[in-house]
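Continuing from the previous page...

OK, I double-checked the sequence for 5-formyltetrahydrofolate cyclo-ligase against my notes and this is the correct one:
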Amino acid sequence: MLKHELRKKYKNLRTNFTASQISDLSMDLANHALQIPVWDFFYFHIFLSIEEINEIDTLPLITLLQGKDKNVVIPKTQGANTLENYLLTDSTPIKKNKWGIPEPVDGILIPENKIDVVFVPLLAFDLKGHRVGYGKGYYDTFLSNCREETVKVGLSLFGPEENAITDVHENDVQLDYCITPGKTYTF
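Thanks. Re-ran it with the corrected sequence; updated structure tokens here:
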């Protein structure tokens, strides 16, 4: 399937979830994160959820990371296809941007070359580790600027598309893992 078709399909599927279902699925997903071999790393990048569009609630995973004394890094959109990354602390001010994404206003900047693990938002993924995001290119640009060994972990409410995503671009960055509420996929 083409990316634009998958975006439409999975945005529609997400609208069927209740807040309670999102909460339960997000907790299951956080528990599955314990199975991937990333817990010796130090800097973990994770997005803050857009509750209004039924995204995965990343708070259980953030709580898990903080409970394991990991440095949690959150993104802020900057210009065309660029993310700045800030350390999440108790005093980090958060404000929604023009797309409704909760972001840090300011704080301690963390360079991309320090980030060990990135939890990647997505709408769909296939069995080859290709993902479909929202189509703005922020994460592909960001991931291409991270170290090659940075671990890329997709977070999905749904299992993989059985058929490959047909319009993969050479600049699309593949995932190393994708965690769903039911299973963790390795690529």
